[in-house]
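Late entry, evening session. Most of the bench is empty. Finally got around to the prediction I had been postponing all week. Sequence below, unchanged from the version circulated by S.P.
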Amino acid sequence: MSTTRRNELLRQAARLFAEKGYHGTSTGDLAEAMGVQKGSLYAHISSKADLLWEVAREGAAAFHEALDEIDLGASREGRVAIMVLSVPEEFGGREVQGGPNGEPDVFLHATADVGK
């Protein structure tokens, strides 16, 4: 699988895991999102659990990259908003909404239900 196609698989898996949860996402869902046959996915992944691990690792890398780019001179609220907005949505980033005192309400979706 080409690097571009592999990245697309990770993006689609992250999106589906975020929308449906790990257990709610079937390999058929992943295959459909990629436009391939279900069985052909296993030529590129060893298991759905390993795919979840890769998605989590990529999301963590995006998060840490975003942290490295934050201006430490910005306000605490500004740093949090920049941090959250920097995480791609398919890796759990969410829109920042203001709280009652103007501070950002931050929610990151975790897809850690693999152990259930």
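Two things to note before I forget:
The first strand starts at residue 97 and ends at 98.
Helices lie at 3-20, 27-34, 38-41, 48-69, 76-86.
Will write this up properly tomorrow.
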